[in-house]
Structure formats: structure tokens, C-alpha cells
């Protein structure tokens, strides 16, 4: 899994103008079975997507189509993660 942490590169008002398209993109990740969880940071300086993918390269490849990325509104940093405790320790994609 990869924790993809975004940082907004534009004012929040500008980011919010693209939010509907971004959320539709996130819905597609969920339908594809790669999204485990997602949400905006608090305070809203970016967001977090937890992706069930095999590599950091694949995570970045998927997020290249995020409207926030395509419009230069945000970028993502990746952190690999192997959950060993809690509800995600045995998580399996619903599409697996």
C-alpha cells in the first residue's frame, strides 16, 4: 500500500473549483479497487489517498490523471506502508 499525501500548490478557493472533478476521479479509483481510503487534511492544506498498488511508480502513474495534478493545483508524495495491526492488517480489495 502507498500513502499518497498531497500538498496544495494553489489557494484553497482555486483548488475547490476543481474539487468536483477530483472527487469523480477518486470515485474511479474506488471503482477500480485500488482506493482503500481518502480524505482532506485538517487544516485543508492537501489530502491523503491510501492506495493498494504494487509500487510507488504505479501510485504516481494513477495520480497523474488527478485533475488537481493535471491543473497544477497539487502534487503527491508517496510513503510505502504495510499495515500489520488494526482493521487494515488483513485488508483485501473488494475487487480481488
UniProtKB/TrEMBL annotation:
Short name of one Pfam family: YCII
Domain of life: Bacteria
InterPro entries assigned to the protein according to its UniProt record, in alphabetical order: Dimeric_a/b-barrel, YCII
Domain YCII-related: 1-78
UniProt xrefs under PANTHER family: GSR2449 PROTEIN (PTHR37828), YCII-RELATED DOMAIN-CONTAINING PROTEIN (PTHR37828:SF1)
Similarity-based family: Belongs to the YciI family.
Protein name, entry field: YCII-related domain-containing protein
Record organism: Actinoplanes auranticolor
